[in-house]
Amino acid sequence: MPVQEKLISSEDKVYEYTLTNQSGDLTVKLLNFGATVTHLLFKDTQGVSRDLLLGFDTYEEYLKVRKDGTNPYFGCVVGRTAGRMVNAKFTLNQKEYRLSANEAPNHLHGGAVGFDSKVWESRIISESPACVEFKHLSVDGEEGYPGNFEIKIRYTVTEENELKLDYDGGLTSDNPEDQMTLASLTNHMYFNLSGCELESTVSNHTLHSDCKYVLELGDDLLPTGALLPVDAIQGLDFSKESRMGDNMELLPQKGFDHVFVLKKPEDLNNNLEYAARVKSVKTGISVVMHTTEPSFVLYSSNFLDGTLPAKKSTQPKAGSYQKYGGLCLEGCRYPNAINQPAWQPQVILRKQDRYHQSTIYKFDRN
Q: For residues 258 and 237, what is the distance between their CA atoms, to the nearest angstrom?
C-alpha cells in the first residue's frame, strides 16, 4: 500500500507512517512525534536500497536524546522559529517577550520543548500521491511565544521521486484582532547519500549552488545583519560543483553551519527557487532542493561525535554517527530576523496573515 499507518505508542498516541510511490523507488517513514522523517529509502545505481537519512529506529530513542540533552534534531520540524535568537528575547508590538534560553544565553529551534518534541495530530490525505498531514496547535505562551498559532505540514512522496513539504499556518480565530507572533519553521533532516554505510561522512559528497550571498555570522553563529558575497569567505562558493571536504578544510571551523541567501530582504516572494544539488560519487545518488524560503542553512553535523547509534534496521554496518556524518539543507527565513529591522517582515505574522512554505527534495541516480 502507498500509505501505511502503525500505532507505535498507545500511551502517547504516536503513529508511524510509511509512504511509498507507485514505482517503489522512494519510501519515506515518519512519526507524528515532532513531525519527524525517520527513514528515506532510495535505490542506488546498483539497485541497492539505501537509507539516506540519519536518525533512529525507535520512538524511545528520539525521546531519550531529548531527555538527556543530546538532541541533534534528526529529521524533525523545528519552530516556532528555526535557528538561534540572540539573548532569547524580542520586541513585538512594543512589548518585550522572553523565550526559553535552551542554548544559554540564546534561544534555539523553538525552545526546550519546541515543535520537535510535540505529538502532532495526524491523518492520511491521499494514497496517490502518498501524502500525510500533521497538525499542531501552539498555545499562547508556549516557550514564551505570543498568540495561539496553528500549523499544518503535509509530506508527499511523488512519482517523480520527490519528497514535498508544504507548510500552512496562522494565528487562530480566538486571538485578539491585534495579535502578532513569529513564524519561521524548517525540517532538520540529515542526509548521507551513501547511506552512512559506504561512507561514514559526507566529505566526498559534491555540492552545487547558485547562491551569490551568505549571511555574515559572528563567533556566536548569530547573523550580524550583513550579507556577504560567497567568494568573500573561502569555502562557501559552490558556483562550480565542489567536493565538500575540500571546502570544509578552507573554513576556520572546518565545517559548515552557514546561511545561504536565495532572496534578499527586498526581494521576498513565494516562488520556488533552486537552492542546491548534492551528490554521492559512491552511490550515484543525488538530491536537488527547491524552496520558497529566502534562505537555507547548510550544516555538516559538526557536533556529532560517534556516540549516537545508527539505525540497525537499514544501516547495520554504520555503527554510529560520526562528525560530518550528515548534511542538512534547511529552508528557512533568516535566523534571528526579528532582531534585525530590515528582516522583520520575514517572520512577523499578524492575525490576517498566513504562514506558507514549500520545500521539495528530488532524488535521482546516475
A: 12
Nearest CA to 35 out of 117, 140, 113 is that of 117
pTM: 0.97
**Tell me, what's the pLDDT at 220?**
85
Instruction: Select which of 107, 109, 188, 290 is catalytic.
Output: 188
Domain encompassing residue 108: 3-365
Q: Is 205 a catalytic residue?
A: no
Taking the C-alpha atoms of residue 20 and residue 156, their distance in angstroms, rounded to an integer, is 9
pLDDT for the residue numbered 321: 98
15 assigned binding-site residue: no
DSSP calls for 140-191: TTGGG--S-EEEEEEEEE-TTSEEEEEEEEEE-TTS-TT-EEE-B-EE---B
Is 257 marked as binding a ligand? Answer: yes
107 is catalytic: no
Q: Determine if the peptide bond prior to 2 is cis (ω within 30°).
A: no
pLDDT at residue 267, as a whole number: 87
Q: What share of the chain is helix, strand, coil (3-state, %, to 5)?
A: 10, 40, 45
Helices first, then strands: H and E counts in the chain: 2, 27
Say how many C-beta atoms besides its own lie within 10 A of residue 35's C-beta: 31
Q: How far is it, in rounded angstroms, from Cα 295 to Cα 221?
A: 16
What parts of the chain have a pLDDT lower than 50? Answer: none
Domain count across the chain: 1
In angstroms, what CA-CA distances link 184 with 44, 115, 336? 34, 12, 10
Task: Considering only the C-alpha atoms of the chain, give the largest distance between any 2 of them, rounded to a whole number of Å.
Answer: 60
CATH number at residue 210: 2.70.98.10
**Contacts of 88 by beta carbon, 8 Å cutoff, 6+ apart:** 98, 99, 100, 101, 104, 105, 106, 107, 144
pLDDT at 231: 95
Q: Is 25 annotated as contributing to ligand binding? A: no
